[in-house]
Predict the structure.
Amino acid sequence: MRLLHSLGIVAIVLCLLQLEPAPARAAGVSIRGYFTSAFTDAAYQQKMVSKVIARWNPKTALPAAGKKTVFIIKLNREGQLAYKKLHLSSGADSFDKAAEKCIDTAGPFAPLPASFRYQYLEVHFHFEIVK
């Protein structure tokens, strides 16, 4: 019973992290932003993800459908990129680099809202092929 209870909590937390509505699609790619559950400013989330999507402009062929690249980033209070890590590679270096460039050129972002009490905001960006 304790295990089921724990799994239920994990499922709820994962649901809270996904930005709604459904992911945007750009040139055969689904781009999603997942925010820490402590950050509830939906307008800020939408603006940030939209800014990243607007920078999507790969110059190479896309990998096979279902392949995914995931970057974990942290923004400081001023909205500047303080940390970035390739968490999951698609297996196609050119696609991974295009996703990284997309994030790099989207910044800086707006300063974090005063209501968010933490020093950094962690966001996971998923770039998935949806041909």
